[in-house]
Write a structure and sequence with these properties.
alpha+beta, six-stranded antiparallel beta sheet, 2 helices, 18% strand
């Protein structure tokens, strides 16, 4: 007398496995793209800080007729927070939290590879930012100079 209602049987194991496989394929595509976009967003810290250093250096030059300030304090630049990048002005630095891009001063000093080391003279300067934004062995290097030329000789996102 009891009849089985057709259609209340649920999903088969094969149907569930197909859904899990589709989700796995979508995740395999989405996660690397997400990580790349996240790393590119982190690079904006270096760009913004180097832009601020440029503005501060231009102000210092207007007041003193030289870029040859020896430290960030003399230049008048101060960063709020630790950040993910070490910022350089000549031999002075503002420490960041980058794993693998070791200390700002001393034997393990990291200067941008393939770019001019941070320097300042009476008529020009090069400031640098170095950080490891995705935890691999490659450091992300950025420089800016008195002509406001922003360079990225070692890109941690594309390496």
């Amino acid at each position: 007398m009891i009849r089985r209602v057709k259609g209340n049987q649920g999903f088969t194991l094969i149907e569930l496995m197909i859904v899990v496989a589709i989700i796995g394929i979508l995740a395999a595509i989405a996660i690397p793209n997400f990580m790349t976009y996240q790393s590119k967003a982190r690079q904006s810290e270096a760009k913004v800080n180097l832009g601020a250093i440029f503005t501060t250096a231009a102000s210092y030059f207007a007041e003193n007729n030289t870029y040859a300030a020896t430290t960030f304090n003399t230049l008048g630049y101060a960063r709020s927070g630790a950040g993910k990048y070490y910022m350089w002005w000549i031999a002075d630095s503002l420490a960041g939290t980058s794993a693998g891009c070791t200390g700002p001063l001393g034997a393990n000093t990291v200067v941008p590879t393939g770019a001019a080391a941070p320097a300042a003279t009476a008529l020009g300067f090069t400031a640098a930012a170095v950080g490891n934004i995705d935890g691999d062995v490659t450091c992300d290097d950025w420089t800016i100079n008195d002509a406001r030329t922003l360079a990225n000789p070692s890109n941690d996102v594309t390496s």
